[in-house]
Amino acid sequence: MHTLTRKRDLRKAEPLWADTPRHAVRTQRRLATHDVDVLIVGAGISGALMANALIGHNLSVLIVDRRKPIRGSSMASTAMIQHEIDVPLHQLNRLRGTADAARIWQRSATAVEHLASLVTALQIDCQFQRKNTLYLSGSSFGARALQAEVEAREAASLTATLLPRVELRARFDIDRTAAIETTVSASANPAQLTAGFLRHAQANGVPIVETIEITDIREVEGRNAVATSDGRIIVATHVVFCTGYEFLDAVANKNHAIVSTWAMATRPRHPRPEWLDDYLVWEAADPYLYFRSTRDGRIIVGGEDEKSEDAFEDPAKLKAKSDTLRQKLSDLIGMKIGEPDYRWAAAFGITTQGLPMIGHVPGMRNTFATMGYGGNGITFSQIAAELISSSILGHADPDASLFPFV
What we know:
There is one protein chain. By secondary structure, the protein is of the alpha+beta class. It has 2 domains: 11-76 and 191-253 and 354-392, FAD/NAD(P)-binding domain; 130-188 and 254-351, 2-Layer Sandwich (D-Amino Acid Oxidase, Chain A, domain 2). Helices cover 29% and strands 27% of the residues. The chain is built from 9 helices and 18 strands.
């Protein structure tokens, strides 16, 4: 059967979040309406934030998903909510020009702040914590490159502090040539975060219907007629595809790829450096290691990415990759890392500039999509919600052109 988006398994093994409470969302199995102002395809974090951005504007909004809510990529996230992008600013300056690169990084930082404000305002119980970030020198960028990165960020009015080797060792007992310390980050339980936003949307009149597969979309008299796999038609003025890495074939191109990644979580109250509870840590390496702690004292560590869209499905690799992650982390912080309570693997999308693609789908009227998130999925989902909702509501967001489908 033809489908409009690429259908794929998005993760293997159950992440830690699948066993945590308060992430179930009640859904409908049948469409109560077949005519809406905005149809959102995808009930993950992107769809949840999109729906919330449209609340209060006298629009009828409907969310549909081929799965149950939060059962795709959102569940596999390690929820390191950062403003820092996979491609460093001093490199992005060369790729996009200093003006656009600065605006992209600034928008990313603002999105983290906006998300934190929303979580507080809506009182979403999701273990949300503000964090500092430690970006360590590694095989890709050494001390000199990190110095250039700090200078680029300062020129873009972004606060960043270079920590030389001696200070890094004294404060964190980590032996690298340098690191960058920043403050604009956060962490959360991504399943609870998504569920909180979905429930708020439901409370404001947004239905969520599961097991709805979208197979086609056609323009009919200035609106969109959207076909489902069971032969129904939904008519929508605007359609927003929040389908993550199951991206639309219409915008697939050489600048977008699917890769595999792995993650693990230790048991609760695992021995860890005292400072780790206040930091997200990642390194300038390929593949890079990243890690953080949770409120109950687990260490979550991820990385070992491979440029393969199906390597994450290999069960043997799941064990081998988690063993590698444990050893790398142990070597870095000088502490033994025990057998993990949870191991999981997932696919995720990347682009050559480390940026998402957000906006109008080329050649499709009033149809939007957001995809290609790299390591900043939740942050970029917030940006997408802001940019696309502005377009639907008729406002001109000055940053709307920063994340094109190219």
